[in-house]
């Protein structure tokens, strides 16, 4: 009797143990967990009218009034969408007309239209207090036309004026002038020291967390090596994300030891744009790209994934040209971006599906008075990306890809997520086999729309309406709970009957005595 009792006590304990969800540990401060919001300082928000000399918000080639104060005023907008970092277009003093920030006049001053260094520090402080990191674009290849530096230093600090005519020539790419901008001579140790000191100056003064290194392919790898070493010696956890331009694939080898923390991938960007600009497009080419990145022994999560940037037409333009409804297409595109490896970089204006052609049309002043559909969607996706480490750190395996219906698996430690994107015009049914995903006693719980799929002997059946996506997490079948409840009830019945039996027996005994 005693042995039997012990067994009945143990059963519920064992069942509780098996139902506990495994807690996943998450390291702090790792860059692969970041989601970056990239904005053009002049085109985001005008928060200070005192710095508006010659501002004309109606002229796309003029300063439009955006500034540090304006960004500070809108920190909650960025934080509210779940971003963890803000990346700013260059903040350094520009020559006249340099609204975009890429015509640097002096690397040691802030652009007067953007505000003072004090205002910049205030912005970084506020961002940090809100849990946002701050990155700044550091354009080290050239200065603005007739910049202070160019007029003072001339031929010693700059390459001879020759516009790049053959972009396939590495010599021209490195030493030629891009769009008429004086090209800094990185062979000169004084130039190297100047740029590296400037980079360290802003880190020290403002406590920023990283640099975006634009036009990095026009600057020699050995300079970057020196730059990245110096910067990381000053702040170890400093993020350096290089934009090597559209030819980056061929240059990967040349720059592999330059010390960048992450790199833009334009080929991936091209495939992503063609898959998600319209419905019914396969995604196989995207996954083939990931295979390539992996086989080049690159850590996939270090890749900067993006749809938009200062150098290209807005992705919305592609959607409109394909006669699609941008908000629907953006949702699908973002579903992919936020569940794939790599660090998502979202260009300001994405949240309102802003349209635009080539520069400056792709850099319109942000409009905050618009609908919230994509803003809410971004917030939801960010939350999932923060909750599920498999989405940021997991392996990736393509399970299904046909004409716009895509299913892939992300796995990290004990967590498995299944992402299903129906970018087609029809309801889709996908059968996942037990070989693709262990279905025994399991179910897939939808985290985006609340869908559920119960594991059967032959695997899982996923059904998704047109334009619907779901992010599932593999979990033990809820059926186990019924077993648990039945067991608990049975034990209670057993004990109650047992005590009734004892009581009756005692009563009988007392009566007999
Ligand atoms: Ca202003
Ligand atoms: Ca200026
Ligand atoms: Ca150059």
TrEMBL record:
Catalytic reaction(s) noted: Endohydrolysis of (1->4)-alpha-D-glucosidic linkages in polysaccharides containing three or more (1->4)-alpha-linked D-glucose units
Biological process (GO), any one: carbohydrate metabolic process
Any GO MF annotation of the entry: alpha-amylase activity
Gene3D superfamilies, per database record: Glycosidases, Golgi alpha-mannosidase II
Entry-linked InterPro entries: A-amylase-like (IPR013777), Alpha-amylase-like_C (IPR054174), GH (IPR017853), GH13_cat_dom (IPR006047), Glyco_hydro_b (IPR013780)
Pfam families noted in UniProt: Alpha-amylase, Alpha-amylase_C_2
Keyword terms: Calcium, Carbohydrate metabolism, Glycosidase, Hydrolase, Lyase, Membrane, Metal-binding, Signal, Transmembrane, Transmembrane helix
Membrane-spanning segments: 482-503
Superkingdom classification of source: Bacteria
Similarity-based family: Belongs to the glycosyl hydrolase 13 family.
Listed name of the protein: alpha-amylase
Organism: Neobacillus notoginsengisoli
């Amino acid at each position: 009797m005693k042995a039997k009792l012990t067994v009945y006590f143990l059963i519920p304990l064992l069942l509780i143990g098996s139902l506990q969800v495994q807690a996943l540990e998450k390291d702090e401060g790792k860059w692969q967990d970041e989601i970056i919001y990239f904005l053009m300082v002049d085109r985001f928000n005008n928060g200070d009218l005192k710095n508006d000399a010659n501002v004309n918000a109606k002229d796309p080639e003029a300063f439009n009034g955006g500034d540090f104060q304006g960004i500070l005023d809108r920190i909650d907008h960025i934080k509210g969408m779940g971003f963890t970092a803000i990346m700013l277009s260059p903040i350094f003093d520009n020559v006249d007309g340099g609204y975009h920030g890429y015509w640097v006049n002096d690397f040691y001053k802030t652009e007067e239209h953007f505000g003072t260094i004090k205002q910049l520090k205030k912005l970084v402080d506020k961002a940090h207090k809100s849990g946002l990191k701050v990155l700044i674009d550091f354009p080290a290849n050239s200065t603005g036309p007739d910049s202070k530096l160019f007029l003072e230093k001339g031929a010693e600090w700059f390459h001879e004026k020759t516009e790049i005519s053959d972009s396939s020539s590495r010599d021209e790419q490195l030493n030629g002038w891009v769009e008429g901008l004086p090209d800094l001579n990185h062979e000169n140790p004084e130039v190297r020291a100047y740029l590296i000191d400037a980079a360290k100056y802003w880190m020290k003064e403002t406590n920023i967390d990283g640099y975006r290194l634009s036009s990095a392919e026009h600057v020699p790898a050995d300079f970057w090596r020196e730059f990245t070493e110096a910067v990381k010696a000053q702040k170890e956890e400093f993020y350096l994300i290089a934009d090597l331009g559209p030819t980056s694939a061929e240059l990967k080898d040349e720059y592999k030891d330059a010390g960048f923390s992450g790199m833009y991938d334009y080929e991936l960007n091209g495939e992503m744009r063609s898959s998600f600009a319209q419905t019914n497009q396969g995604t196989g080419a995207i996954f083939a790209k990931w295979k390539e990145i992996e086989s080049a022994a690159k850590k996939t999560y270090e890749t900067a994934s993006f749809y938009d940037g200062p150098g290209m037409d807005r992705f919305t333009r592609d959607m409109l040209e394909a006669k699609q409804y941008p908000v629907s297409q953006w949702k699908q595109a973002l579903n992919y971006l936020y569940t794939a490896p790599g660090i998502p970089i979202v260009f300001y204006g994405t949240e309102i599906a802003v349209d635009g052609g080539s520069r400056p049309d792709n850099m319109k002043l942000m409009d905050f008075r618009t609908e919230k559909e994509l803003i809410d969607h971004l917030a939801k996706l960010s939350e999932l990306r923060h909750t599920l480490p498999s989405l940021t750190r997991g392996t990736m395996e393509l399970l299904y890809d046909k004409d716009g219906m895509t299913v892939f698996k992300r796995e990290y430690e004990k967590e498995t997520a299944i992402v299903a994107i129906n970018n087609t015009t029809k309801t889709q049914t996908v059968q996942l086999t037990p070989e693709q995903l262990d279905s025994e006693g399991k179910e897939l719980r939808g985290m985006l729309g609340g869908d559920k799929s119960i594991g059967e002997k032959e695997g899982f059946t996923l059904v998704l309406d047109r334009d619907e996506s779901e992010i599932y997490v593999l979990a033990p079948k809820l059926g186990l709970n019924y077993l648990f409840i039945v067991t608990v009830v049975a034990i209670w019945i057993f004990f109650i009957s047992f005590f009734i039996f004892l009581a009756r027996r005692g009563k009988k005994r007392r009566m007999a005595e």
